[in-house]
Every structure is written in C-alpha cells, then in structure tokens.
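Re: that backbone. Tokens:
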C-alpha cells in the first residue's frame, strides 16, 4: 500500500501530488475563444507517483507529467499522461520510491544502480516534428504529440556526446536552428559544458565542449543572431559532498557570477569571460546584439529563490534580497575589461519570462512575465518557491511601461505562454494557468496580449486542480501531424 506523502510544503496544499492521468473533452469555456487560437499548449509538471524515499526531497525530483490543452474548432480538450521514464517504470514495478534525494545517485536503492535517474519534468519543446521533454540532468525524452505516449530517450541518432541537455533550448525562428547546452556534460559534478546546435531538420550538426570556472546550475542561457552567452551563477555542486549523501546544490554568493560570450559562428575557444557579484537567476527573457554590444534581459535575486537550496546552504530567507528589478545587462565587446553595465527595465521583480517566438534573438519591444504584488492579495503557498505569483506583467522594454493583470486575492498564476495571432499587426494572446485556492480548482485565462489589464476574454474551466507547472510550449495546429490536431 502506498504511504502518505510528507506534510511539508513540497507535497501539501496546491503542491500536493495529483497522480491523475485523464482525458476531458470539450471543456467549459466562459466568454468567447478567438477563432485564430488553433493548436496545442503542452505543459510539463513535476508530479510524484510515489512518496519520496526521503521526506526532505524537493519539488524538482518528481516524475514528469505532461499535459496538453488542444484548441480546435472553438473547443478545448485536456489530456494528461506521465512521462514513462526508466525510473518511473522501475518504481512502479517495485511499488515504492527507489531513488534517493534530488540528483544524488549515492542515496539510491542498490537495485537501481544502473537505471537512468532522469524524470523529464521541466520543459516540453517542439522541434523538427518531434516533441521532447527536457530536464537538465539527462537527455531528452520523446513523446507522441497526439496520444502523449512515451516514445523513449532521444540521443539525436547517437550523435550526442553530452550526458545532459539544457531545460531551455533557444530556437531561431528564422532559421529553425535549435541551440542547446549541457552542464555537467561529462558526468556528475564535472565542470564540462557542451554547446550543441541542431539544424531545422532535427540533426545534431555541432557539439563543442569547454570547462566552466565552477560547476553551476546553468538552467538557461542566451543566444542572439551573432553571439552565444553562458551565464553562470554561484549555485554550485561538489562531488565529495554528493558522495557523502549531501545535497547536489548549495548557494555560494561569495563566489562571482561569470558570463562567457562567444561569436555564434565562432568556437568555444573564442569565449570571453566577464565577472561580477554573486547573484541567483534562472530564466532569461531575451537577448540581442547591436554592433559591439550584447544585451540580455532578466531578473535576479541576491538570496536564493528555492527554499531547499537555502536550507542546504545554511541561509535564512531575507525578503529584501529577493526584491531586485527586471534588468538589462550590457556587454561592450569593443572595450577591455571584464565588467558589464546594468540598466533597470522595470522595478517589478518577477520570473518565468516569455516573448513572441518571432522576437527571439533580436531587438524586441514587448515581453511578459509573472510576479508577486502585495496589493493583489496576501502570499499563497504554491510552486517551487513556496510563494505563488499573483500577477502577470506586460513590459514594453524600451520605455519601461508596464501593465498588469491579476485575478485578485485567493489566486496564483503560472508561467504564461504566447499564442501568435493570424491577424496582421495583432500582438497575439497569452494563456495563463491559474490556481483558485479558495475553490481548490484550476482554470486557464485567455488574455489579449496587448491589453492584459482588461482581463480575460475567455476562461477555460477545469473540474480539478492542476499541480503547479514548470514550463510550457505552444504549437500551432498546422505545425503538428494531422493526428495531433484534434
């Protein structure tokens, strides 16, 4: 018999596991869905099938659950399926958790010594007619976009050498190229980083390796039309600590932040390194090159965002260190030195940034992200940071003008996804999963991207609660195979 899950914040409240695979056709919709929303929103969520082997394990260690909202003919269908990894198959056969704490194989049951640990629970990516589930400690897992059946690990026809692939690839909208990196590419706690390029047909055409200054949790990176940027923040790994049964990651803000920049058509031998104060960040909105200058936009914090990393690092939560603005870092490659210039774009700190796919790697006008604003309600416990965001922000990056949307007290919001419009000059739409804490339900709001402050033009109602997602991707219907179009 399966035992109860721990009662801590990783596994209770809206973070309580769902463990539900289901199909719900023709969801209830309040309002009118725009006719030009036609395609599928794939979402990936950590959702443990069994209680963890150790109660203090964290949200990221959970099995991957892929869900999709399929928009077709004015209707919306919903489907969820577990990503059937080797790990989940082994645990289902045993009827219990066999793998130990997050990213530490030395705490696993001896029976799974040779079983891949990957849970494929972070980001679903559609590229070259293939749906890939990504988590940065393993290779991608391929799934069927129509049935959500698991197809197996994807190693790019055996061409890849890296043991890991980033959770956040960067896809060039104009060329179809996909840029990947893998940290700890050569094995657990190694300083090896792999740069990989996949062409529009899905073929791995380039892989180069280099050593980072230290082992960093490099969750995301930046690609422009002319450069590739590797930002390293001091959340670090140590093999001896891991072998001793300790945590994979600790935060060491006394170490510098490093940023490596190389020409996109050059080599990793051309990397130029910059350094500054140690901070913490995980997601980048966008980056672009203008002459000799490289820019990228994001939000960082002085303290660490994740409670489990703070605990493992012996640090206390300091709210003032979490209130950093949305910024742009400027690197002038024509000047000597290893420093950068910081510009404030918006005072509202936040995360989970998104832009229109067509704007990636270029100078751009508008981005979207989520944040917490106290005037929209008291803090609510959900997600990986144990405090949910309650506001969606639209940022005009050149002017700094920001507009906001919130459903008010009792609700939290997850990462938005941008849906392009087929109407010329139209900014498109945002889909946002919301958590209705007072009703113990979830729904999806549809916002007109240019006017989010006006509120939903439609709400898609779910008869259940969804566990907090990590990331999602939108795919237009014409880009999917016929069986996946609804």
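Recovered sequence:
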């Amino acid at each position: 018999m399966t035992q109860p899950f721990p009662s801590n914040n990783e596994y209770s409240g809206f973070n309580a596991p769902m463990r539900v695979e289901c199909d719900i056709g023709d969801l209830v919709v309040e309002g009118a869905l725009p006719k030009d929303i036609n395609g599928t929103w794939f979402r990936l969520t950590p959702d443990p099938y069994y209680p963890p082997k150790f109660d203090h394990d964290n949200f990221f260690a959970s099995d991957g659950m892929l869900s999709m909202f399929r928009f077709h003919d004015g209707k919306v269908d919903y489907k969820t399926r577990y990503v059937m990894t080797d790990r989940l198959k082994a645990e289902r056969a045993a009827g219990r958790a066999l793998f130990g704490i997050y990213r530490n194989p030395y705490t696993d049951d001896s029976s799974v010594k040779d079983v891949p640990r990957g849970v494929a629970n972070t980001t679903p990516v559609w590229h070259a007619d293939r749906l890939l589930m990504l988590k940065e400690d393993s290779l991608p897992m391929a799934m069927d976009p129509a049935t959500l059946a698991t197809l197996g690990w994807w190693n790019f026809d055996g061409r890849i050498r890296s043991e890991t692939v980033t959770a956040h690839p960067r896809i060039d909208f104009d060329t179809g190229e996909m840029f990947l990196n893998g940290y700890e590419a050569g094995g657990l706690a190694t300083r090896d980083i792999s740069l990989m390029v996949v062409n529009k047909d899905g073929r791995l055409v380039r892989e180069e390796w280099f050593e980072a200054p230290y082992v960093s949790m490099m969750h995301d990176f930046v690609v422009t039309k002319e450069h590739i940027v590797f930002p390293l923040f001091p959340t670090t790994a140590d093999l001896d600590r891991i072998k001793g049964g300790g945590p994979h990651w600790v935060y060491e803000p006394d170490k510098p932040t490093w940023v490596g920049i190389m020409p996109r058509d050059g080599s990793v031998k051309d990397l130029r390194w910059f350094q500054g104060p140690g901070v913490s960040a995980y997601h980048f909105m966008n980056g672009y090159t203008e002459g000799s200058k490289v820019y990228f936009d994001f939000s960082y914090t002085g303290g660490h965002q994740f409670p489990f990393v703070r605990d493992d690092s012996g640090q206390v939560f300091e709210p003032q260190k979490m209130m950093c603005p949305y910024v742009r870092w400027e690197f002038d490659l024509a000047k000597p030195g290893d420093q950068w210039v910081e510009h404030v774009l918006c005072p509202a700190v936040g995360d989970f940034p998104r832009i229109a796919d067509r704007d990636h790697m270029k100078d751009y006008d508008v981005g979207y992200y989520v944040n917490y604003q106290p005037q929209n309600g008291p803090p609510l416990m959900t997600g990986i940071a144990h405090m949910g965001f309650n506001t969606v922000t639209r940022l005009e990056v050149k002017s700094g003008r920001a507009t906001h949307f919130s459903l008010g007290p009792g609700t939290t919001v997850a990462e938005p996804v941008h849906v392009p419009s087929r109407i010329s000059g139209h900014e498109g739409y945002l889909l946002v999963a919301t958590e209705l804490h007072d009703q113990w339900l979830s729904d999806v709001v549809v916002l007109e991207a240019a006017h989010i402050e006006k509120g939903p033009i439609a709400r898609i109602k779910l008869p259940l609660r969804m566990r907090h997602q990590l990331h999602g991707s939108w795919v237009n219907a014409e880009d999917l195979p016929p069986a996946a179009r609804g």
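The mean pLDDT is 96. The radius of gyration is 21 Å.
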